[in-house]
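tool_call: predict_structure(chain=1)
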Amino acid sequence: MSKYDFIKQGNLLFWHTADNDIECRIISTPEKVDSDSIILISTSSSETEVLASELLPIGSSRSHKEEFMRWKKEREAEGMEFFSRLSEVMETDSDLAIGAFGIVNRLVFIIVMIVMGLNQGMQPIAGYNFGAGQHARVIKTLKLTIIYATCVTTFGFIVGMLFSDWVVSIFTSDAELIALSAKGLRIVVMFFPIIGFQMVTANFFQSIGMASKAIFLSLTRQMMVLLPCLIILPRFFGVAGVWYSMPISDLLASLIAGTMLVWQLRKFKAQA
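tool_result:
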């Protein structure tokens, strides 16, 4: 039994071309058919001669073709769903979130700059008195700077919590962006009252010549705590995880700074 027994005059077959399978009817065949035999076929548009190897049984070819077409439609449907979701995320989450972060970052930076100014004022005073062995003056300078910095960051906390919609509306008139920015600002300033203390403490260690501790405290807030939060939290909470990474970083960094400061002040008292 030949593998080309399905090629008989009058049979409907598929002519396999580079582009697709074309349904055709056999007009004439040689007595013995092999792969190199020339077969005269008729398609819907013309008659032509093809090799026997280019013809496929209509039953098996149709089954294969239908399976392929079904697979193709499924993949296209999945692709459309994926790109639709991607477009939705890019339009709602990503673009607006980036804009909201830019607004929140500018507002927060205003408060941070004031605290940095207080740190620069404290640094020469604390450094000079520490070098002179006047630990009492150093501690007094530290306490006053912490108080002033805490007042500044608490003011930022109050404005961020109570007047968030109003302050973010300074930068945009888009209602959706205002709502997202206001929500983000309320999250970011959640632990703002204690962040002034953390920044002053980090600068205090720099003032008394303990640069390694100052660098460590700066890194805890900006990298060592923040980066793991940014990697982990968005996997579970999406864009909200990015927002909550910031107050979590502020809280943990402040706790570390408080622990190191208490230990250092006790060391000062032991040396007195």
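agent: The mean pLDDT is 79. Proceeding to next step.
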